[in-house]
Design a protein that fits this description.
mainly alpha, 2 strands, 9% strand, elongated
Length: 92
């Protein structure tokens, strides 16, 4: 089983638990659509270098690049500047 197939199967398993199980058994259900969109999104993130697929645990994990890109906006000077900018745009 390839990595993308394993991740799709794991996503369907999660979605089956998360959404009503009876609906997940049909081929055109919301679960399958959600699973395919999440897998496609994570595959794009892997190609961009933000995540990698951990084969042992069969989960996507962030890379150092992805971690920095996801968290830089929460650091001190940037977070304050972003708050000021949002307040200025709202006019308050």
């Amino acid at each position: 089983m390839q990595a993308s197939e394993r991740s799709r199967a794991r996503c369907i398993e999660f979605c089956t638990w998360f959404i009503d199980g009876r609906e997940a058994r049909t081929q055109n259900s919301k679960t399958v659509v959600f699973s395919e969109s999440m897998t496609a999104d994570f595959d794009r993130q892997v190609k961009a270098g933000r995540f990698y697929l951990n084969d042992r645990a069969n989960v996507y994990r962030p890379t150092w690049k992805g971690t920095c890109l996801m968290t830089w906006k929460f650091l001190f000077p940037v977070s304050v500047i972003l708050r000021w900018r949002i307040k200025a745009e709202l006019g308050s």
